[in-house]
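DM from R.C. (forwarded with permission)

"hey, sorry to bug you on a friday — could you get me a structure for this? deadline for the figure draft is monday and I only need the backbone to look sensible"
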Amino acid sequence: DTAPDLAGRLSPYRAGYTPAQRRGIEERLFSGDLLAVVSTNALELGIDVGALDVAMTVGYPGTVASLWQQWGRAGRGKSDSVALLIAGSDALEQFFVRHPQELLTRPVEAATVDPTNPFIHDRHLVAAAYERQLTEDDTRFFGPGLVEAAMRQTEAGTLRHQDGSWFVRGNDYPAGAISLRSSSSDQFTIVDEETGDIVGTQEAESAFSFLHPGAVYLHMGESYLVTTLDLEGRVAAVRRFFDSYYTQPRRQSSTEILACSLDAGFGPLRLFLGTVAVSSQVIAFQKKRTGSDEVLSVEELDLPVQHFVTEAVWFTVPLELIEERDLPRLPGGLHALEHALIALLPLLAMCDRWDIGGLSTPVHDQTELPTIFVHDGHPGGVGIARRGFHQFGSWLATARDLLRGCPCESGCPSCIQSPKCGNWNEPLDKDLALGLLDAVLS
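My reply, with the result:
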């Protein structure tokens, strides 16, 4: 049955909407005019939406803390409520389906943050200086890097130094410029070229993946086709789109080791933690038919290379661990293991797989060995990779449980296929990945 008269009482919601759009949806939900809202985690906390009857979470939100926050949106009144988790095919979600107590008894995660990361530290330093002038005595709050950071911001023109203190320049409210969605305030504005209306915004670090020319962009349940991307003006022009296909970007990435801060042996593996430079370029995209996922075409792109420096955990695999007959399968085995590790790192750190990146290669030009990197997806790093380094054994063991427990034969979205893979999940070899894990953990 259909109920077209109810269509106007349902609404989507996400952080990329304009403030006016968001406030209007919140007010209608609070008043009861809206019967339901389909939202990203933007509605998770910090907004009063009243007492709801049902909280239905589609897909694990990435952390236990987020799940309980979302479920806690229901049941605030006097009547009974229902909270549901609809698991998708994602590897971590299927792990929880097979091990529900791992989810329901898991404590809320400790927040993972690196307060010395200059991309985080410097912005909060300026925000603090707005409330009260800073002096060298404030190192007890901001650490020994206070003076160096304050001088950086003085040179950048956001602070001024006078008589041993630092003050904010101008009257703007610095905290208002700090993004809660990204460590960078750089973003693209999405404009409907036919009406001139602002459709939304997108963080610069992900704009090339979602707003490249030819991309199909989804906003408030409507599809748009990106016609142009103005890199200097930070504007993506779009128009309404009514065809039945979607797009997936292809990325080419490389990882350069800049420094190693920790290293250790783990069985036959050599494990490292350090600083890396990540370079990534969106080089193409494919059009896939909605519903069947049939590949309709592949089109090349010419976009700039994006660079950032972050923290990574990586390990090398000795060639003695690999049978000579398996060498041709090595790229797929390493790639599959990389995907499994990225999918499961949120079990150890307060993050989701979109906060993490990775690279696997049969021969890295610096290590000269088969190598897998897993890095923080944020410039400077926030401590996610560090958590993986210190809990490496349990990380690998959980990955083996995931691959062993998945009933598929050659790999699927529930174990080694990733929705964010820049290589379109090619090549992947589940059997070899499991064989490597067995050899290391035996």
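R.C.: lifesaver. The longest strand covers residues 245-266.
me: no worries. The chain has twelve helices and 17 strands.
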